[in-house]
Write a structure and sequence with these properties.
The chain has one domain: Orthogonal Bundle (Arc Repressor Mutant, subunit A), CATH 1.10.10. Helices cover 25% and strands 18% of the residues. The two termini are 22 Å apart. The chain is α+β, with helices and mostly antiparallel strands and 156 residues long.
């Protein structure tokens, strides 16, 4: 049985797994690894749906700026038509997961009739590419992106 889902399901958008970015966004006690599309709290992996991670990534990359609902919808579901309730569900999950920043302000703020804003002091760092020779210190229980034994997340 093949795990090469691109060959089995070519119509799905697998842009998440193809990222070559080595960026890691750090805020409060969280780390968002862009290459692996994983969120960590205190070096422990947090299980999130792939689209929830994409939603967070879209907000973190535009931190401090107001991102409209339409901009988020097109960034997350670029070639798919979905209901706005899907976005609301992922924002709810992210708010519950992230909570508030040290100042008591929610990390993800809703600005009525305008959009959403990520409120966090974000630091950007570069991680080393993940391969067998990597010496990067990795968070505990981190699945290795390039490892063929890593299970793929559910497709949303």
């Amino acid at each position: 049985m093949s795990l090469d889902l691109e060959l089995i399901y070519p119509e799905f958008n697998f842009k998440m797994g193809k990222s070559s970015s080595n960026k890691v966004y750090q805020f409060d006690n969280f780390k968002l690894d862009v290459g692996c599309r994983m969120l960590y709290r205190d070096d422990a992996a947090i299980t999130l749906a792939p689209k929830a991670v994409e939603t967070l990534l879209a907000l973190v990359e535009r931190r401090g700026a107001v991102v409209s609902k339409d901009e988020l919808m097109s960034a997350i579901w670029s070639d798919t038509v979905v209901e706005e309730s899907n976005l609301a569900q992922y924002l709810h999950i992210l708010r519950k997961t992230l909570g508030a920043n040290p100042n008591g302000v929610p990390f993800i703020e809703t600005l009525r009739r305008r959009g959403y804003r990520f409120n966090g002091d974000v630091r950007v760092s570069e991680s080393l590419p993940q391969n067998g020779a990597s010496t990067r210190s990795t968070p505990k229980d981190e699945p290795r992106c390039g490892n063929s034994t890593t299970l793929l997340p559910a497709i949303c």
